[in-house]
Specification:
Distance between the termini: 38 Å
Order of helices and strands: HHHHHHHHHHHHHHHH
Strand content: under 5%
Mean pLDDT: 88
Largest sheet: none
Structural class: mainly alpha
Length: 313
């Protein structure tokens, strides 16, 4: 999932689309942020008129989502080196993250005026055009980037995502397969290829791709959840519940996966309603829907299904 985020439309269950970042990893990144900030802020103090410390401090601020400070440092970097296409691209990215798409477009175009071979500027333009729904323009920009750098995976992946968003599934599949010939261990591409197969109801192929993504990146809750969804579609509810639990072990507060799990409990309860186990499963479904609503109080589907279960008990 974590490239354009793709939403998989399913009949039985709803795809999980959140990315978990463990506290331990966050803790490590906090240390990395402090170390980088200390290093580059000290470098700026010692050499305020040098380009590299200013640019890199801007990058540190951008990664920490301190966008105003990032823009300030990038501005200082351009004061020292106005013809840096790289800094113009990074400013464009900051504007994009701030939702200022027109300012971002202007910066990406400025970068290309300075360096017509800046493939990352083309990719930035493609990303914004794709957001705006101009898929053909987006693909054109991505192809320009690949023409300059044929091994630039991000642009190739973005083309595949754009095709999927436009419902050109077969073209998306071809692009993902081409990427995997270059980078066979790219977990997110295997995941997106799984979505493409899932969209076209090639469920076994989808499971294979999701599983390859998990083999590469074991803590991949979206892929685990999607396998659970497919098992649910196939009527393999016990396996579905198992996969969804595995996803929630990684991301325990994902309301989408919790909803999927509750729905699987509910459907399995109907199959076993004449047994004591059926009542236990209904209770689990109710409790899980309640958890969904605690995390996502506006989840209408969870609320409706919870009311029906309570009314039928």
């Amino acid at each position: 999932m974590k490239a354009t985020k793709l939403k998989l439309h399913v009949e039985l269950l709803v795809v999980a689309s959140l990315v978990i970042i463990f506290g331990f990893i966050t803790h490590q990144r906090n240390f990395a942020w402090k170390d980088d900030f200390s290093f580059w802020s000290d470098a700026v103090i010692k050499s305020p008129d040098k380009y590299r410390p200013r640019h890199n401090l801007g990058l540190v601020y951008s990664r920490a989502e301190q966008y105003d400070l990032a823009l300030e440092e990038y501005g200082e970097a351009l004061r020292v080196m106005p013809a840096s296409s790289k800094t113009h691209v990074n400013i464009g990215r900051v504007h994009e993250k701030m939702g200022q798409n027109e300012l971002a477009i202007a910066k990406y175009k400025k970068a290309l005026e300075i360096d017509p071979y800046d493939y990352k500027a083309y990719t930035g333009l493609g990303k914004i055009y794709n957001k705006k729904g101009f898929v053909d323009m987006a693909v054109s920009m991505y192809k320009q980037a690949i023409k300059i750098n044929p091994l630039y995976i991000n642009a190739r992946k973005a083309i595949g995502n754009a095709y999927l968003n436009k419902r050109l599934i077969n073209l998306g599949v071809k692009e993902y397969i081409a990427i995997l010939q270059i980078d066979p261990d790219n977990a997110s591409v295997h995941y997106n290829l799984g979505i493409a197969y899932d969209e076209t109801r090639q469920l076994k192929k989808a499971i294979i791709q999701y599983q390859k993504a998990i083999d590469i990146k074991p803590e991949y809750p979206e892929a685990l959840s999607n396998i659970g969804i497919i098992y649910g579609k196939m009527g393999l509810l016990d396996q579905s519940i198992q996969q969804l639990h595995m996803s929630l072990d990684i991301n325990p507060r994902d309301p989408t996966t919790m909803f999927n799990l509750a729905l699987a409990y509910e459907q399995l309860a109907k199959k076993k309603e004449q047994r004591a186990e059926g009542k236990e499963l209904r209770v689990k479904a109710v409790r899980t829907y309640e958890k969904v609503l605690k995390v996502d109080p506006r989840n209408v589907q969870a609320g409706e299904r919870l009311r029906k279960l309570r009314a039928g008990s």
